[in-house]
From TrEMBL:
It comes from the Bacteria. The lineage of its organism: Bacteria, Bacillati, Bacillota, Bacilli, Bacillales. It holds the Pfam family CoA_transf_3. This is Formyl-CoA transferase. GO terms for molecular function: CoA-transferase activity. Keywords: Transferase.
């Protein structure tokens, strides 16, 4: 384990080599960087992470990169070449964790798989992210978030029954997997440092598994009841009433009653205490059998009130309701501001740039944003000189041979 330095977060002193590209694994590394880990992003010379070329853009400037790769350093290194492998192994000897998302067997073919890298560092932890995991008949397949979401069963649940299933409008499964990457890294570090053997290990994560793990209701309902849950445009099969409703002034809100006690509060707010004794509505189980009727009653009532009036009114009764916010709404919202959910950072070319803040909030060792996503190879000289003690001449030759 590397020595802890100035405490800038609970993971201060942990060094991570991020060999991964695009979203899922890099996002996990970013989360760890937010809480003090030193994250060194290793990229292909002259090309870099393909995420650098992913929209949106302002002119030629990628707008996703500064946030997705914040709190990272960037070095370039060709892992396929002999000198590149040597440098990687020297970096591994000074690091705690390697995060990668190549197809299974790729690093092994390059002679820098886990077993080989562990020779340089017995305490090494490696997080391996692929579409379908390191094992199984589909492990060789290309893995991307949207197909993995479909494979998990998630996509099957979403949309209208008379239209095709719909995918999430952004890379949801990648970000969920990134959270698992951060969780797995922290757990493996704890075991290594608090356990008896002090050794590292590798962790195997499939993209589809992260969202599949969240659908226990789907598994048990099919196992015990033989139910194949079909798609619906909103929350269904769990709570009633629940869904999207339109207010008198044309805004959309989400309202859900996840327990009978919550429905009792809603019934009181609507002036419909009679529903609590009606055999069609008095429990969640019977309301689910009369879902459309129940939702219709709520929809008609919601249309009698304007959005802000409705929000204040139901807040007073303790009924869960929220406006459906656009990003413009979020930028104006006082709660997002108070929670520092959006922060402003200096960008060398764009000037002031806003991005999501750090969560969760630690009382004693809070996370921080120390730098935005770096330019390609920005930290080559610093890391190669100061971490693995290469000379200026050695670095010059590596540049000339396109190894870095």
């Amino acid at each position: 384990m590397t020595n802890r330095t100035e405490n800038i977060g609970p993971l201060a002193g942990i060094r991570i080599l991020d060999l991964s590209t695009m979203i899922a694994a890099p996002y996990g590394a970013t989360l760890l960087g937010d809480f003090g880990a030193e994250v060194i992003k290793v990229e292909i010379p002259g090309q870099g992470d393909t995420l650098r070329g992913m929209g949106p853009f302002k002119g030629d400037e990628p707008l996703r990169w500064p946030t997705m790769s914040r709190n990272k350093k960037s070095i370039t290194l060709d892992l396929r070449r002999k000198e590149g492998k040597k440098i990687l192994k020297k970096l591994v000897a000074k690091s705690d964790v390697v995060i990668e998302n190549f197809r299974p067997g790729t690093l092994e073919r390059w002679d820098v798989g886990y077993d080989e890298l562990k020779k340089s560092n017995e305490e090494l932890i490696m997080i391996r992210v692929t579409g379908y995991g390191q094992t199984g008949p589909y492990s060789h397949k290309a893995g991307f978030g949207t197909p993995a979401t479909a494979f998990s069963g998630f996509t099957y649940l979403h949309g209208y029954t008379d239209r095709p299933p719909i995918s999430p409008s952004f890379s949801l499964v990648d970000y969920i997997t990134g959270v698992y990457v951060a969780f797995a890294t922290s757990t493996a570090l704890y075991y290594r440092d608090a356990g008896k053997d002090g050794e590292g290990q590798f962790v195997d994560i499939g993209l589809y598994e992260s969202v599949f793990r969240m659908m226990e209701f789907l598994v048990t309902d099919y196992d015990q009841n033989g139910i194949v849950k079909e798609r619906s445009p909103g929350l269904s099969g769990h709570s009633s009433p629940a869904g999207t409703f339109q207010t008198k002034d044309g805004h959309w809100v989400v309202l859900v009653t996840s327990s009978d006690r919550t429905f009792e509060r809603l019934a009181e707010a609507m002036g419909r205490m009679d529903m609590l004794k009606d055999e069609r509505f008095y429990t969640n189980a019977v309301r689910l059998q009369n879902f459309e009727l129940t939702n219709g009653i709520v929809a008609d009532w919601v249309k009698t009130k304007k959005r802000d009036e409705l929000q204040e009114y139901l807040d007073d009764f303790g009924v869960p309701i929220s406006p459906i916010n656009s990003i413009e709404d979020i930028f104006k919202d006082e709660h997002f501001k108070a929670r520092e959910n959006i922060v402003q950072i200096e960008h060398p070319r764009l000037g002031k740039l806003k991005m999501p803040g750090v969560i969760p909030k630690f009382s004693k060792t809070p996370g921080s944003i120390r730098n935005i996503g770096p330019d390609l190879g920005a930290d080559n000289d610093d890391i190669l000189k100061n971490l693995i003690n290469l000379s200026d001449e050695e670095i010059r030759l590596l540049k000339e041979e396109n190894i870095i």
